[in-house]
C-alpha cells in the first residue's frame, strides 16, 4: 500500500527557514546552512549549485530510502515561489501539486506542476497520480502542519541541521495536536541528523 511521507529540514531551534525567505533567498537569510547536507557542503545563493550531486554517504542513504518509491508530491505555493519554480520545470520524479488559493495563473502542464486549491483536493490528485507509489509532502512548514492535522501522514522525516537560526519560520509554530511517533531510522552525517518516524494511530 502506498504511503504519505512528509519530509523537511530544520535548525536545532526548530526553524525551517531563516528570516526574510522568498524568491532569490528561498531558505531565508542564513538558511542555506539548513541544506548543506543536500548540496554536499557549503553553498550560497550567488553560486552555481546542484542538489544531490555531492551528498555524503549517510545523506544519500537517507535520501534514497525516502525517494525511491515516490510517485507524486505536494508542496506549498510559498516553497514553489521561493524556489523560483525550479527554473520553470519540475525537477522531481512524478508530478508536483502546488497547494494554493490562487489557481488562475496555472502553469503550463508540460512544466510538471499543477496548482490545486485545498489540501484534501491536492492529496486526492497526488494519490491518483502516484498510483501504488508513495506521495511526498514537502515544505513549507504550513503544508507539513496541514498534512499532520489531517491525520494522513504515515512517515515523518525530520532532518536537523547543526545550526541555531534564532528567527524565521518554525516547523511547529501554532501546532497544538498531540502526535505519537516511533523512531524507525536515524542517519547521521557532517551536516545533519536525519530522523525517520512512523506516525502512530491516536
The count of helical stretches stands at 5
What's the architecture in CATH terms? Answer: 3-Layer(aba) Sandwich
SSE sequence, one letter per element: EEHHEHEEHEHEEEE
Distance N terminus to C terminus? 20 Å
Cα Rg: 16 Å
Percent helix among the residues? 10-25%
Low-confidence stretches: none
InterPro entries: DHFR-like_dom_sf, RibDG_C, Riboflavin_Biosynth_HTPR
GO molecular function: 5-amino-6-(5-phosphoribosylamino)uracil reductase activity
Pfam family, one: RibD_C
Protein name: Dihydrofolate reductase
Can you walk me through this structure?
The model has no long low-confidence stretch (mean pLDDT 92). It is globular and about 40 Å long. The protein contains 5 helices and 10 strands. The protein has helices at residues 36-39, 57-67, 77-82, 119-130, 141-149; strands at 4-11, 15-17, 70-76, 96-99, 113-116, 134-137, 155-161, 169-170, 181-188, 193-199. The chain has one domain: 3-Layer(aba) Sandwich (Dihydrofolate Reductase, subunit A), CATH 3.40.430. The strands form 2 sheets. An 8-stranded mixed sheet has the order 5-4-3-6-1-7-10-9, with helices on both faces. Strands 2-8 form a two-stranded antiparallel sheet. Helix 3 links the parallel strand 3 (70-76) and strand 4 (96-99). The chain has 202 residues and is an alpha/beta fold.
Amino acid at each position: 500500500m502506498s504511503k504519505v511521507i512528509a519530509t523537511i529540514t530544520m535548525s536545532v531551534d526548530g526553524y525551517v527557514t531563516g528570516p526574510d525567505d522568498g524568491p532569490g533567498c528561498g531558505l531565508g537569510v542564513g538558511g542555506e546552512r539548513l541544506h548543506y547536507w543536500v548540496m554536499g557542503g557549503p553553498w550560497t545563493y550567488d553560486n552555481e549549485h546542484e542538489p544531490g550531486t555531492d551528498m555524503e554517504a549517510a545523506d544519500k542513504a537517507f535520501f534514497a530510502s525516502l525517494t525511491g518509491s515516490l510517485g507524486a508530491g505536494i508542496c506549498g505555493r510559498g516553497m514553489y515561489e521561493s524556489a523560483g519554480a525550479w527554473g520553470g520545470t519540475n525537477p522531481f520524479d512524478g508530478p508536483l501539486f502546488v497547494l494554493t488559493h490562487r489557481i488562475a495563473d496555472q502553469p503550463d502542464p508540460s512544466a510538471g506542476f499543477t496548482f490545486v486549491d485545498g489540501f484534501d483536493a491536492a492529496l486526492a490528485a497526488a494519490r491518483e497520480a502516484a498510483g501504488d507509489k508513495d506521495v511526498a509532502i514537502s515544505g513549507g512548514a504550513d503544508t507539513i502542519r496541514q498534512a499532520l492535522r489531517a491525520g494522513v501522514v504515515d512517515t515523518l522525516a525530520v532532518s536537523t541541521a547543526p545550526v541555531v537560526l534564532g528567527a524565521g519560520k518554525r516547523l511547529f509554530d501554532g501546532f497544538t495536536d498531540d502526535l505519537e511517533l516511533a523512531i524507525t531510522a536515524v542517519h547521521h552525517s557532517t551536516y545533519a541528523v536525519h530522523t525517520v518516524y512512523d506516525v502512530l494511530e491516536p
